[in-house]
Amino acid sequence: MRIDPRSHTPIYIQLADLLREKIESGEFAPGSTLPSELQLSQEHQIGRESVRMAVALLRSEGLIRTSRGRGTWVREALQREHIELTPGSSAIARMPSSRERREMDLDEGVPVIEIRGPKGEVYVLPGDQTELIRP
């Protein structure tokens, strides 16, 4: 798959699709480092902003992690915790506070799930590691 600048699909989406395909095929295995922003830009002859946007998209999908000074790497497959909502409970997805992001070690763009129990108790769980089940 090549990046087609004449396509109606934005360049950053094309690059994200290409990288996602390589991750899903195992070409970029969990834990492996992705090429740098500069390398991807040069290899695909696209602007660095398009690379940044593609990386941000994949990060928001939970496929990759980035760290200043360490680069970008493929995340290990996440184990999801199954939470059964009890009658009278409610759940919403929202963006975490800075403190919640730090405490849960969440990547930017990953939401949290806030569950309110029938007695008003509140639980906040990482959205990329939680699956809600209705009874």
TrEMBL record:
GO terms for biological process: negative regulation of DNA-templated transcription. One of its GO terms (molecular function) is DNA-binding transcription factor activity. PROSITE patterns: HTH_GNTR. Signal peptide: none annotated. Pfam families: GntR. The keyword Transcription applies. Keywords: DNA-binding, Transcription, Transcription regulation. It comes from the Bacteria. Residues 9-77 form the HTH gntR-type domain. This is GntR family transcriptional regulator.
